[in-house]
Design goal:
It is found in: Mitochondrion outer membrane. It is a single-pass membrane protein. One of its GO terms (molecular function) is mitochondrion targeting sequence binding. The protein contains 27 helices and no strands. By secondary structure, the protein is mainly alpha-helical. It is elongated, with a radius of gyration of 29 Å.
Length: 622
């Protein structure tokens, strides 16, 4: 059992998310107010004081400003939903760019007056939808404007870009906006219009740079720029992950993660200890020594390696059984598929799972387990309909299998179908009353439902339920972990800290718990040193814990240490177990990199963030 990592990915326990995931490596315990969306859109998990979604610096600031302004526009007159479509009379002011006074001022004003008149004429054409005539007028204004009038000249270029935009001449838009920005480097309208042009021209990196500058200059108050930043981060992340993931080297997770993963199944034949009949008589008398299997079976050899925690040899031994079409072929297919999932190779796992499911003569427990794992894989790939179909089929063919209801309950939480999730957990508990995991996760589902519904009496009932679970199952680390998340959400930090300590006592090798406890220190006591110490301890325990690297990177983003943040995100990227997870991490890395470039280019610095408790609801579009 493992302390829950926030479910940023749509992954349930049978799929294989990052090494920081919950029960069995994939608990579906989400924070209140979060829906079953892709991991990369999650901004903050229950109990975690850090923003863990793509472009965290964007999302945190937006929420903070909303609270501070009560939904008003920013001080510069730019409202969050400002469309920036119309031309303007004057650009954003630039320091030192006022009109000069002196002997030549009268002549200059004459030229400038004529330029302004041409611009005003162009504005009338623009408002009338006569964009070609507007462009001619703005071009005239540019030619008449004195070259030292940077602000006015930049306005004329920006207005002409706006007209080109209406004609969808994106190259010309980008060129004119570049002229405007050269004249007035912090010209928000021109930067944003150029960002949109870069998006249309498929220049994602340039688009991200411009929209990042806009977000910082606007103080993260304009929703339109926030949406574009989120959109381009997602596109860049997917693009990079697609290329990187197909060429990645398979990586076996830590032994603790693998054992935790298998512990989330109770009706899984392949994870059960070897039967006495499968061992030689000599081996039966050699307790504690490596076993030699009785038969010349690749599958039994693989099972032996599982008991020895020699996981790297399991796939090859299963392949021998499958190639020989041995009597354990169905078991070997399922075990091989499971380890393909563990190393993040879903493409290799699917054919094996498909074959097991289609083997009508195979043990029904094997087929149901394959359906659970394929359904979980589909959810990880954001295919909830296929996922639901597999879980329902598993329930049809093996209605007495508690694992089906346990894992389907987690799926329902991810899909925000809490009542159905509770019903599945209840059925799992009916079939296996000793299932501590199902009882703990049922409590969390009820808590989440009460929290989102702002029902204080139901919240108290759910908290009481947690107390009963940990009293009844004092050895269940997951119960303490989920209770700690709820306690943190209720700002009962001291008690939450005690719960994490109990998790650590029960599972001292579970790196995820140290990350959660570290995050708690930041939120509770603003103790950065202690928080980083605990997260570093997580990495020391499990250097394959991508959750720890990701969290460390997010902290460094919020501290303004972009280079270190990028290094942490890159380490997490190399450990990603799915393409979707990798895309999320690339989004974080690209957001940090973009801020670094913008800071150098424009001399800007994003606001330094502290670790306040903010729960952001996920939506289909942020």
């Amino acid at each position: 059992m493992a302390a829950s990592k926030p479910v940023e990915a749509a992954v349930v326990a049978a799929a294989v998310p990052s090494s920081g995931s919950g029960v069995g490596g994939g608990s579906a315990t989400t924070g209140p107010g979060t829906g079953g969306l892709p991991r990369w859109q999650l901004a903050l998990a229950v109990g975690a004081p850090l923003l863990l979604g793509a472009g965290a610096m964007y999302l945190w600031s937006r929420q903070r400003r909303r609270r501070e302004t009560g939904g008003r526009g920013n001080a510069g007159g730019l409202k969050r939903n400002s469309e920036r479509k119309t031309p303007e009379g004057r650009a954003s002011p630039a320091p030192g760019s006022g009109h000069p006074e002196g002997p030549g001022a009268h002549l200059e004003m004459n030229s400038l007056d004529r330029a302004q008149a041409a611009k005003n004429k162009g504005n009338k054409y623009f408002k009338a939808g006569k964009y070609e005539q507007a462009i001619q007028c703005y071009t005239e204004a540019i030619s008449l404007c004195p070259t030292e009038k940077n602000v006015d000249l930049s306005t004329f270029y920006q207005n002409r870009a706006a007209a080109f935009e209406q004609l969808q001449k994106w190259k010309e838009v980008a060129q004119d906006c570049t002229k405007a920005v050269e004249l007035n480097p912090k010209y928000v309208k021109a930067l944003f219009r150029r960002a949109k042009a870069h998006e249309k021209l498929d220049n994602k990196k340039e688009c991200l740079e411009d929209v990042t500058a806009v977000c910082i200059l606007e103080g993260f108050q304009n929703q339109q720029s926030m949406l574009l930043a989120d959109k381009v981060l997602k596109l860049l992340g997917k693009e990079k992950a697609k290329e990187k993931y197909k060429n990645r080297e398979p990586l076996m997770p830590s032994p603790q993660f693998i054992k935790s993963y298998f512990s989330s199944f109770t009706d899984d034949i392949i994870s059960q200890p070897m039967l006495k009949g499968e061992k030689s008589d000599e081996d039966k008398d050699k307790e504690g020594e490596a076993l030699e299997v009785k038969e010349n079976s690749g599958y039994l050899k693989a099972k032996q390696y599982m008991e020895e925690e020699n996981y790297d040899k399991i796939i090859s031994e299963c392949s021998k059984e499958i190639d020989a079409e041995g009597k354990y072929m169905a078991e070997a297919l399922l075990l091989r598929a499971t380890f393909y999932l563990l190393i993040g190779n879903a493409n290799a796992a699917k054919p094996d799972l498909d074959k097991v499911i289609s083997l009508k003569e195979a043990n029904v427990k094997l087929r149901a387990n394959a359906l659970i794992k394929r359904g979980s894989m589909y959810m990880q790939q954001q295919q909830p309909l296929l996922s639901t179909q597999d879980f329902n089929m598993a329930a049809d063919i093996d209605p007495q299998n508690a694992d089906v209801y346990h894992h389907r309950g987690q799926l329902k939480i991810l899909l925000d179908q809490v009542e159905e999730a509770v019903a599945d957990f209840d059925e799992c508990i009916r079939l296996r009353p000793e299932s501590a995991l199902a009882q703990a996760q049922k409590c969390f589902a009820l808590y989440r439902q009460a929290y989102t519904g702002n029902n204080s009496s139901q919240i108290q009932a759910a908290m009481k339920g947690f107390e009963e679970v940990i009293k009844k199952f004092p050895k269940c680390a997951e119960g303490y972990a989920l209770y700690a998340q709820a306690l943190t959400d209720q700002q009962q930090f001291g008690k939450a800290d005690e719960m994490y300590d109990k998790c650590i006592d029960l599972e001292p090798d579970n790196a995820t718990t140290y990350v959660h406890k570290g995050l708690l220190q930041l939120q509770w006591k603003q103790d950065l040193d202690r928080g980083l110490e605990l997260i570093s301890k997580a990495i020391e325990i499990d250097n394959k814990c991508d959750f720890a690297y990701e969290t460390m990177g997010t902290i460094e983003v919020q501290r303004g240490n972009m280079e270190k943040a990028i290094d942490m995100f890159n380490k997490a990227i190399n450990l990603a177990k799915s393409e979707m997870e990798m895309a999320h991490l690339y989004s974080l890395c690209d957001a940090a990199h973009a801020q670094t470039e913008v800071a150098k280019k424009y001399g800007l610095k994003p606001p330094t963030l502290w670790f306040s408790r903010t729960t952001l609801c996920r939506s289909k579009i942020f």
